[in-house]
Design goal:
single chain; alpha/beta; 5-stranded parallel sheet; 7 helices; globular
């Protein structure tokens, strides 16, 4: 059976979205896209300077991600894309009534994610913005059909748990 779902991997910055999503896409044999690559340059510069994005900043970015999802849907492709998707209103743009799109929520404690962000190098998102991410975060409810994975384990363990919850067989080793 072919895997025909598009997964939106969400969570606060530092939750491991890119690492987990890349591994997940490889295990499922589908395309991967880092949603941050679709941010307008002004958004990246704003975050680099330590200024949180506003909803007005996010709307064009979210629409660009939704357009990529719709492009995959039109082509009949499965895929994995990352997006913080912190608010329900953002997820409504990305997923809405698209039944073939599923949400994967990488959940972790503020302390654990802060430690991980402090240890990483070369990312545009400074650790100082983590508090604003948690302040905005609206955890997905059951009606959003989320796959919830705790980020306390290894990336391979997190991917294995997501695949288990999806109920599919991986096409490649995790």
């Amino acid at each position: 059976m072919a895997f025909d779902t598009i997964l939106v991997v969400m969570g606060v910055s530092g939750s491991g979205k890119t690492t987990v999503a890349e591994m997940l896409a490889a295990a499922l044999g589908v395309e991967f896209l880092e949603g941050d690559k679709l941010h307008p340059r002004a958004n990246v510069e704003k975050m680099k300077s330590g200024t949180p994005l506003t909803d007005q900043d996010r709307w064009p970015w979210l629409r660009a991600i939704a357009a990529k999802i719709d492009d995959w849907r039109t082509q009949g492709k499965a895929g994995v894309i990352t997006c913080s998707a912190l608010k329900r209103a953002y997820r409504d743009i990305l997923i809405g009534d698209r039944r073939e799109v599923r949400l994967v929520y990488l959940r972790g404690s503020h302390q654990l994610i802060h430690e991980r962000m402090a240890a990483r190098r070369g990312h545009f998102m400074p650790v100082g913005l983590l508090d604003s991410q948690f302040a905005v975060l609206e955890e997905p409810g059951p009606d959003e059909r989320p796959i919830v994975a705790d980020v306390g384990g290894t990336p391979a363990g997190i991917v294995a748990e997501i695949i288990r919850q999806l109920g599919v067989a991986p096409r490649a080793p995790v």
